[in-house]
Amino acid sequence: MQIDFHYSYRVLWSPEDGEFVGRCSEFPSLSWLATTEGEALHGIITVVREVIKDLEEQGEPIPEPYVDRTFSGRPSLRIPPELHRHLAMEAAEQGISINRLMNLRLGAGN
Fold it and tell me: Both 7 and 56 in a single domain?
């Protein structure tokens, strides 16, 4: 089983570069520019494989893929008191919890 297939790859259009950019969430410093989406994906996968090989050879830790990690579903979030007050008031007006309101807001961005 090759661990690099478990990583989170994305290909997006880069207006600044005028090309597609391939990225890997587990290796945020890496990217690959190409004229097509397929080439960008292939490029970033190739780079990640090379980096993994180098890390293995040097005995360095290799990032665990996000899909293989366990998440609690309870992220800690610090916000300004004014925003907390605003959210509490809005949640009360809607008859829902602050947690539910924040879930709705975060989910709307997907």
Answer: yes
37: number of Cβ within 10 Å: 14
Calculate the dihedral angle through the C-alpha atoms of 28, 32, 36, 38, rounding to the nearest 10 degrees.
-70
User: Do residues 85 and 48 share a domain?
Assistant: no
60 and 81: one domain?
no
Q: How far is CA 11 from CA 3, 20, 37, 69, 110, in A?
A: 19, 6, 6, 22, 16
Cβ(2)–Cβ(46) below 8 Å: no
Contact 25, 14 (CB under 8 A): no
Q: Specify whether the CB–CB gap between 31 and 10 falls below 8 A.
A: no
Per-residue pLDDT of the chain (110 residues; tens, 9 = 90+): 455 568 999 999 999 999 999 999 999 999 999 999 999 999 999 999 999 999 999 999 999 999 999 989 888 889 999 999 999 999 999 999 999 999 999 887 65
